[in-house]
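Cholesterol catabolism transcriptional regulator KstR, Dietzia cinnamea. Tokens?
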Amino acid sequence: MTKSSTETGSAAASAAAATRADEPSTSSQRERRRRILDATLALAAKGGYEAVQMRAVAEKAEVAVGTLYRYFPSKVHLLVSALAREFRRLDQRTERSAPPGDTAQERMKVVVEMITKSMQRDPNLTEAMTRAFMFADATVANEVEEVGFLMDRIIARALAQGEPDELQLSIARVVSDVWMSNLVSWLTRRSSAADVATRLALTIDLLLGTDDSPRRARLHTAIGNGNGNEAGEADAATGIASAGGAADAATG
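Tokens:
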């Protein structure tokens, strides 16, 4: 994702580990943290970003406001932590069950579609968590890096059919960056769900399609001829076509 695309996989993994190390160690603390995050998600699902107020979260989670601030120093910290938990659950699900598909291209499309639909299912909640992610500063760096690392790994597993290597993570990072850009476009009503699905499928085809893929050849011809429609679609995946060779090496 955008926040992690300049980081190496190992750096992002270290940040994710640091985030987990900061989590409560006792069962009562973990339960309190769970209630706080559940309350955050419930409020966000009902009213979006503006509905998540620290006092309202504390009241719904049945904790003191001071206790809430000890766990989460800010609203942004709270929402990004909730997003990280959601991606952790997705990561566990994809680790247990490999996506269907005979090729890396097919498997990646299945995984990306699953993530996209899960986020589009609740626009208010997604808007709240995405805004927090985009607003996050250095004080939430570990949580932001964990989200990026998990997103990249979930997508990269579709390539690797197991634990991905660094090249596969790099390819996944390109896809996750395009995914985030299109999610924001959908949230701000500049793109429909169908537009998002088309652009993401195009991105994956350009990255993972074989050199003799009819669609890839057609797109490259359209771009070369300056075809407005298809070239415009391809522009959503700026620079991706040139990465095709590296992608083929990673999936071969």
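The longest helix spans residues 75-96.
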